[in-house]
């Protein structure tokens, strides 16, 4: 398969990561390894400090090198520091300002959790909290995340391919789309209880993909980042990551995945259909009605390699893996 063969556009972590950050992170992982099974129990979302090394599956997958898919130059690949990744967030269920989710989501309790896969499937599947981390072998993926607001990050995720969970459920021939739903729990999510705090969104937050997009090997379900379980503000315990699409497609804290005959409604498209499409593929040639999408502000450490304003790449640089999905489609119309 194309993406498993290392070709020039696939850089290893050493190629793409600012060296000091790389070594820093390796030592963090090592420390986590020493924590081993004595780590905290995964009873709360603040088990973000729980390491993955008490899970045999994760341990096995961490021994394999992380996978990085890239067409972008190496200086556009520097990892975004963890502190930025976990404090600059969009998670409107916990407030629409960037710093609110990190503050307001700390008590978010994600265990127990139930993720259900249903709809046009032969085999309905229900995964509880522990199964999210043990049902599938975990791997690390370093992906760029490009927000529709024109900022971007490079994040080392931990998780598994979305296609794995779909295959387990055995979609019927009727399954053409995949719909995703975030938890609805206004007692825990203040933005769902307070319309102003929640940015006027009608909850639960919902998203969707065409089934061939969902089955593309790049589509990823993340349960961790930077070697730890996901912090609540980043979508604990499980969130979607679709790196060639604007960030709003990467729905957080998922409780439902449904395979459907028809295209499902999606949150931002319902809110402002002329601004946010169903496809939402990163496209520097199609501007948002209120701002340009030709470039983006890359959130990095600064310093020698810093290039904060960079050109945006078609499909966020993943065209080789995904452009074929849209052959013959007018991407101005299907934005
Ligand atoms: N998922 C839910 N449920 N609610 C949200 O508000 N925001 C989206 C996406 N997933 C959002 C969501 C947007 S706009 C972006 S850019 C990414 O999450 C941000 O992910 P991050 O905070 O981990 O960087």
Overall CATH class = Alpha Beta
CATH topology: Sulfite Oxidase, Chain A, domain 2
Helix content: 10-25%
Which superfamily, in CATH terms, is the homologous superfamily? Oxidoreductase, molybdopterin-binding domain
Any idea how many domains?
1
Largest sheet: 8 strands, mixed
Number of strands: 13
- Averaged pLDDT, please? 85
Enumerate how many helices there are, as a single number.
Answer: 11
Shape: globular
CATH architecture level-2 label: Alpha-Beta Complex
Low-pLDDT parts are 1-12, 19-50, 52-64
Q: Structural class of the secondary elements?
A: alpha+beta
Instruction: Return Rg in Å.
Output: 19 Å
Q: Explain this structure to me?
A:
The structure is a single chain. By secondary structure, the chain is an alpha+beta fold. The chain has one domain: Sulfite Oxidase, Chain A, domain 2 (Alpha-Beta Complex). It contains eleven helices and 13 strands. The strands form two sheets. Strands 1, 4, 5, 8, 9, 10, 12 and 13 form an eight-stranded mixed β-sheet that branches. Strands 3-2-11-6-7 form a five-stranded mixed β-sheet. A hairpin with a 5-residue loop joins strand 2 and strand 3 (125-128). Mean pLDDT is 85; it is low at 1-12, 19-50 and 52-64.
Question: What's the structural blueprint in terms of helices and strands?
Answer:
Elements: H1 13-16, H2 19-35, H3 56-63, E1 67-68, H4 82-85, H5 100-104, E2 114-119, E3 125-128, H6 129-134, E4 139-146, E5 151-161, H7 162-169, E6 177-182, H8 190-193, E7 206-210, H9 211-214, E8 220-225, E9 228-229, E10 239-241, E11 254-260, H10 267-271, E12 295-298, E13 309-311, H11 319-322
Parallel strand pairs: 1-4, 2-11, 5-12
Antiparallel strand pairs: 2-3, 4-5, 5-8, 6-7, 6-11, 8-9, 8-10, 12-13
The chain binds ligand MTE.
């Amino acid at each position: 398969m194309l993406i498993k063969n290392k070709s020039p556009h696939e850089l290893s972590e050493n190629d793409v990561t600012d060296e000091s950050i790389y070594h820093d992170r390796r030592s963090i992982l090592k420390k986590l390894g020493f924590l081993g099974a004595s780590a905290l129990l995964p009873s709360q979302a603040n088990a973000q400090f729980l390491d993955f090394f008490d899970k045999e599956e994760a341990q096995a997958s961490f021994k394999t090198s992380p996978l990085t898919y890239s067409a972008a130059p190496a200086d556009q690949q520097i990892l975004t520091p963890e502190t930025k990744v976990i404090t600059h967030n969009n998670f409107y269920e916990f407030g629409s300002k960037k710093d609110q989710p990190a503050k307001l989501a700390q008590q978010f309790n994600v265990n127990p959790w139930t993720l259900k896969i249903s709809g046009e499937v032969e085999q309905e599947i229900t995964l509880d909290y522990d199964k999210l981390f043990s049902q599938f072998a975990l791997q690390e993926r370093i992906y760029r995340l490009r927000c529709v607001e024109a900022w971007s990050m490079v994040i080392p995720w931990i998780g598994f391919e979305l296609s794995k969970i779909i295959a387990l459920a055995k979609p019927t021939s009727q399954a053409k789309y995949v719909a995703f739903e975030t938890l609805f729990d206004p007692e825990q999510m203040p933005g769902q209880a307070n319309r102003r705090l929640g940015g006027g969104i009608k909850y639960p937050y919902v998203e969707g993909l065409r089934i061939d997009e969902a089955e593309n090997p790049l589509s990823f379900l993340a349960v961790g980042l930077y070697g730890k379980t996901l912090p609540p503000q980043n979508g604990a315990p499980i969130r979607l990551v679709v790196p060639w699409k604007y960030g709003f497609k990467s729905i957080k804290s998922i409780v439902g995945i449904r395979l459907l005959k028809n295209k499902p409604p999606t949150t931002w498209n319902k809110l402002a259909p002329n601004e946010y499409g169903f496809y939402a593929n990163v496209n520097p040639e199609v501007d948002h009605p209120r701002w340009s999408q030709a470039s983006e502000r890359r959130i990095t450490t600064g310093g020698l390699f810093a290039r904060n304003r960079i050109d945006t790449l078609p499909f966020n640089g993943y065209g080789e893996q995904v452009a074929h999905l849209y052959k013959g489609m007018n991407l101005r119309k299907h934005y």
